[in-house]
Each structure stands twice: as structure tokens, then as C-alpha cells.
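Working notes for the structural subgroup meeting. M.R. asked for a predicted model of this chain before we commit to crystallization trials. I am recording the input and output together here so anyone reviewing the notebook later can reproduce the run.

Input as submitted:
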Amino acid sequence: MRINQENVTFEDIGHWEEQAKQALDKKDACFDCTGVRNADSALLALILRWLSEAQKRELSPRIVNLPEGMWSLAKLYGVRSLIKPYCHKE
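Returned structure, recorded in C-alpha cell form:
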């Protein structure tokens, strides 16, 4: 699943939740943030839920090009170590 929106906020997250669910239903376990420049904690929460669901489905999750701001939020919320093993730069 690729997020092709520069700014992702709480107002947008419902759309992306549905996209994430559909992607996992198709066994697409890549969460591509290449288009994201700015996001709030709603995106981080979505990534954590998506990651958990991908693991439950025994998929091999990958998070691609997580924006720098997400790293700061992940550190702030104490979840950086949960997502780091799945993150890749492309």
C-alpha cells in the first residue's frame, strides 16, 4: 500500500485505514510512505495497527521510507523499537 498524500492528519486517517485493510486482505504487507512529507500521530497509530494485523496474518511486513517526523513521534511515544525492524529506505 502506498500513501500518495504529502500531509496525513487525523482527518485523513479513515481513508487510509480502509486502504490498509484492503491491502492486507490482498496480502500486500508493504506500507509505503514515500509520498508522505508531514504526518501526525494518527499515521503512527495506523502503522502500529497495520503492523499488528500483518503479523497476525503471518505476513512479512515492511515499512518503506518512513518520514523523519514519524521517527521523532515514535521515539516520543516509546514505540520506535517496535517499528524499526520493519523499516527500510528505498
